[in-house]
Design goal:
The chain has a four-stranded antiparallel sheet. It has one domain: Chitinase A, domain 3 (Roll), CATH 3.10.50. The model has no long low-confidence stretch (mean pLDDT 97). The chain has 93 residues and is α+β, with helices and mostly antiparallel strands. Helix content is 31%, strand content 34%. Strand 3 and strand 4 form a beta hairpin. The chain is globular, with a radius of gyration of 12 Å.
Length: 93
């Protein structure tokens, strides 16, 4: 069964999500920004969500994780929880 490991930053606006994405593109550390800005409890672990399979996350998140490139920051991805930046750290097909 496919599985993936990912980390994310959850914020309440698309604008904030884009600002953080620019900071990461400019060299700032994803984990440090997650710890400082993410409203998800996973922020304390640098945004790490652990390993999960398709269907365990909301559909928009699942699609990005299992359809996007590994190691590339994706987003903003809008879900019922807010706006996410996410990075797939590992995926097994």
């Amino acid at each position: 069964m496919p599985s993936a490991s990912a980390r994310h930053i959850l914020v309440d606006s698309e604008e904030k999500c884009n600002e953080l994405k620019e900071l990461i593109a400019g060299g700032q550390d994803f984990a440090a920004l997650a710890a400082e800005h993410s409203s998800c409890p996973s922020g304390k672990q640098g945004g790490a969500l652990g390993t999960f399979s398709p269907g365990q996350m909301v559909p928009e998140f699942d699609q990005a994780v299992f359809g996007g490139e590994v190691g590339v920051v994706q987003g903003p991805v809008k879900t019922q929880f807010g706006y996410h930046l996410l990075e797939v750290t590992e995926r097994n097909e």
